[in-house]
Amino acid sequence: MIPQDLAPAILEGDVIDLLRGLPGDSIHCVVTSPPYWGLRDYGLRPVRWGGKARCEHDWEPTRPPRHREAQGAIGEASRGSAAVDYDASGRGSTCRRCGGWLGQL
After folding, report:
1. Which of 13, 60, 74, 102 would you label with 91, given CA atoms 20 to 30 Å apart?
2. How many structural domains does the chain have?
3. Residue 101, strand partner residues
4. Chain centre distance of CA 69
5. Residue 88 is part of which domain span?
6. pTM greater than the 0.70 cutoff
7. Where along the chain is composition biased (Basic and acidic residues) (predicted)?
8. Cα separation of 97 and 91, whole Å?
């Protein structure tokens, strides 16, 4: 039997908002659904990560590397088939001034 204070709980929502409302040292596992270089769009507002808060951001589109021979990279050949030259334009932006990133996680 699991003690009541250790009972598992499943919380569903925006991980950023939910984690802010939980007490410290109370989380043992967080499972999310990352967009994998923009392959998913959840229709949510983009969030700024890193960079400087007071920067007048100059956002430019972020794209994954286009190295067709790269192992483990987007566009890697699968089972001998030709690699796809994936373009994630519009799937996140990096600030030219401070290096912050704007997009969905």
Report:
1. 13
2. 1
3. 49, 94
4. 24
5. 1-105
6. no
7. 55-70
8. 19
